[in-house]
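okkk here we go again. third time trying to get the zinc ion bound version out, last two times i messed up the smiles copy paste (missing a bracket lol). double checked this time i swear
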Amino acid sequence: MSVEICPKCLKDDVKKDGFRQDKDVKKQKYQCNRCGHSTVNPLSEDDPRLTAGKTRFRTTVPRSKRYVITCAQNATDAHPVLKSLETYCKHNDAELLIIPIRYTNPTSLWGASAKAQDWWCDEVSPYLFNGRKKLHKHLIILGNVSTQLTAARPTQGFETITGPHSAIIGHPKLELQYIATPQQKLPKAIMTTGCCTIRNYIPSKAGSKGEHHHTYGAVVVERDGDRFYFRQLNALEDGTFIDIRTKYTPEGTEPTGRIPLMVCGDLHERYACPKTVAATFIGLNSIRSVLDPEKIAWHDVMDGDTVNPHERDNPFMRVARHEHAYSDIRKEISDAAAFIDKYASGDVENYIVASNHEDFLSRWMNWVDWRTDPENAEFYLETALEMVRAGSIGPNGYTGIHPFPYWMKQFIETANVKYLDVDESFTVHGIEAGFHGHRGPNGAKGAIASFGRIGVRTIIGHSHTPGIRDGVHQVGTMSQLSLSYTSGPSNWMNTNGVVYENGKRALLNVIDGHWMLFP
Ligand SMILES: [Zn+2]
Ligand SMILES: [Zn+2]
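finally!!
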């Protein structure tokens, strides 16, 4: 004999309670003796909602060097990415943690009762963790907070929740922001995870936006003593993803080829952090050696402080620069060229993204009086003559040469270098990598927020603060984390970006000269 179960409180204590006439159909009505709920659709004993409804969450987190963290929506089937994440964990000796998130979808297959939807599919159940736990002395997983599933800014409002520690929040929309903390040397990261259950949203404006930003994937966290690293494992619709040089699928792993693009954090060559340069370019464990990028994009290649218009009226800075041989602009440019020759020659194509610090030179050409700057007078006059000769008026107005690329071409020995014009498109596997980030769409002041609105997936630089938001990835800097123009607690990070051959991006932090956990 079948047993009827109340869909609201899930107890098998219901009694028959007359009939309900639905048009021509007469339906048996039931009432629950426990909660009083009345229904014509009781659950049967074998309903999957019952077993899953008893979902038990993990209360402890096993100690591990590596964690993979994603989230799963209630009452929703697993996506194939879950199997790929299991493959990843097996191959990398990592612990999978899944943050349960709730979304009551009245039009979903499972009916209107929120209680009856409070279950997770069998595939994710063993990994569910809904607690708050320190995964590292600087990082906390927040399994116990709930963010609206359709939130446009899922990390917003969580800036202070973990004090000085970085935080991981379960959410299907990928987001990362950095917050300066006075207590710590490095800023803290607030990040979301991506998701391992299929899209299941209410058809509404918020629902369809959520659907659009729904990201299959996870974040991998590696513990390395005082440091931790994390990377995005961003999957395709088929559930496969790439991390470093390996593709992970539900069935297994495959090695990948060279990565198509590395975007270096803003270089500011003169002030580049030696440890970050080493982690990126020197030795077999460097990012360049391990990932072997086909292309490298560069932002703010030179700092340009020799010609910084913001410092033109500061005689003390000018004297100090002069005394330290930092006042020769020709040397600053040739040093930047030498850096690329040293670290990015060989079998790689270099792209110099038009950036604001190099633009200091174009501006200097307009404001400086060469008669007051004997050290740079000859350089100025040579450059001015070239600019005068090259200038012209075409159908779109003035055209001419930019002094920075003009001089780089004179100094550099590396053959494969392309200089992008301002706003010149440079796309790799669908990712636009030609914008520095200082100028937003339609001349607006650039920021990660304004690039998010253009609807094109981009990697930008400029702010020195890495982030992920609305289809924009922003790299950090390769410079020292505080320069004379920074003040107060800083949210700068040494962070490079990559585009994998599947068109997905990841950000790679360099922490104190290290960037990933090697076996
Ligand atoms: Zn910049
Ligand atoms: Zn910069």
